[in-house]
Every structure is written in structure tokens, then in C-alpha cells.
Q: What sequence folds into this?
């Protein structure tokens, strides 16, 4: 049986930066402070697989490739295969791609890779679910998250990206072991300017609700001392786990 992740393992730093040299600086600074680095669309579009290699070359941390794959099943299947070749730990697929796409993605998963289903972006609230965009009239974010989670779980997905406020319901309704990765983390003592996250929580609260991993970007990236900011979050995670 795999050991439970340490508080440091549970902290994922989002490399939401514009270029590879900047990413390398953060990797070198935070490589022994966080358990994983998230490579998202901005950095991957700019630097490609070099961004993944930079994490492996400059730290012992894992890689979370956050591309939210959403395409025809064959294309997604090949993309998952490629991600596995790059030795990433987490890879996101968008649940709205449907059962055939998710089934194809799961067929390509190799040992060591965990697929994470994105149900509803954490930037969205119920006010954004406009029927003109195809959403059921009156549906809430929580209802949509649960609908997509249950469909994806039935296909075989065992990990999800969600906001802290949905963690308990996901784990309760899933009926089995489910891993949750939570972005939108905002330490209580930090102010994030131009924040586009709609559903947020402090690190401690997210862990108390049952989150397994936390994704933190701006509160660490924009801190005067990113390493200290990361350590404060690790300490808060540790305290919440003991509570």
C-alpha cells in the first residue's frame, strides 16, 4: 500500500508563467518546498515538453500536466500516451468530453499516471451556467459537478479537479476511493489582485473538507519570498491534517 502523501507532497505549485527561464527560476527556488509543479496551457504552449523536462532536471518534484484534454477519442488517447512518456504524475481531461473520450483516455494510462477529470472550472459560478450556452435551466454548479463526476466515475475515472466546496459531496456520492485536487486556494493573509477564481478556500479549510492535493499559484508566485510563502502553506496543511 502506498504511503499517504506528506504535507509537502500535497502542495502543487502552478507554473503559470510566460516563459521557460522564469519557470526554471521558480523550480529551482521551490523544488524542495513543494511536492509537484503544475505545467498549464500558457507555459506548455510556449515551451512544450521542455517545461516538463525542466521540472525533472531541476527538482525531485512531480509534474502535473494541466491541459484539460477535450477532443475526439483517438486524439485524446494518443495525447495521454504521450504524457505518460514524459513521466507526468497528473494529467487533466475535461469531463464534458463524454464517455467515449474518457474511455479512450483511460485505455492509454500507464502505471504512475493519474488522470484527473475537470468537471466545472473553478472560475465559474452558478450565474455563469446560462441556458443559452446549453446548460439546463436552473442547474447549479454543484449539481453539474456531481452529474459529470458520476458519469466519469462510472467510466472508471478515480480523480477529479474541483473546488473545496465540492470535495465532500464528490467523495460521498462517488461510492469509492476518489482523489481530489483543489485549485482556487487563497491563504487568509493574502490578497490576490485581479482574481478570476470564483470558488475559493484557505489551505486549511480545503484540507479539512477532505482535499488530497492543493494547487496554489499567485499567493506563492507573487509573494516577496515565494519559498517562505510555500512553507507557510505546507505548515497550514500539516496543522489541518492533525486537527
A:
Amino acid at each position: 500500500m502506498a504511503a499517504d502523501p506528506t504535507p509537502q507532497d500535497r502542495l502543487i505549485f502552478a507554473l503559470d508563467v510566460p516563459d521557460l527561464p522564469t519557470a526554471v527560476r521558480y523550480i529551482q527556488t521551490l523544488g524542495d518546498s513543494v511536492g509537484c509543479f503544475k505545467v498549464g496551457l500558457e507555459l506548455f504552449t510556449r515551451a512544450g515538453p521542455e517545461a516538463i523536462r525542466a521540472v525533472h532536471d531541476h527538482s525531485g518534484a512531480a509534474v502535473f500536466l494541466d491541459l484539460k484534454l477535450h477532443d475526439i477519442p483517438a486524439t485524446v488517447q494518443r495525447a495521454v500516451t504521450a504524457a505518460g512518456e514524459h513521466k507526468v504524475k497528473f494529467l487533466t481531461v475535461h469531463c464534458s468530453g463524454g464517455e467515449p473520450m474518457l474511455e479512450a483516455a483511460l485505455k492509454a494510462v500507464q502505471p504512475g499516471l493519474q488522470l484527473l477529470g475537470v468537471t466545472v472550472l473553478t472560475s465559474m459560478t452558478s450565474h455563469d451556467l446560462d441556458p443559452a450556452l446549453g446548460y439546463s435551466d436552473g442547474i447549479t454548479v454543484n449539481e453539474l459537478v456531481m452529474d459529470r463526476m458520476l458519469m466519469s466515475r462510472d467510466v472508471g475515472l478515480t480523480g477529479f479537479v474541483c473546488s473545496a466546496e465540492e470535495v465532500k459531496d464528490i467523495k460521498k456520492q462517488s461510492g469509492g476511493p476518489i482523489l481530489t485536487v483543489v485549485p482556487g486556494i487563497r491563504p487568509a493573509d493574502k490578497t490576490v489582485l485581479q482574481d478570476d477564481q470564483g470558488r475559493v478556500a484557505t489551505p486549511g479549510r480545503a484540507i479539512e473538507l477532505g482535499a488530497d492535493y492543493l494547487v496554489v499559484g499567485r499567493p506563492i508566485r507573487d509573494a516577496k519570498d515565494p519559498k517562505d510563502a510555500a512553507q507557510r502553506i505546507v505548515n497550514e496543511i500539516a496543522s489541518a491534517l492533525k486537527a
Summary: Residues 134 and 230 are 40 Å apart (CA to CA).
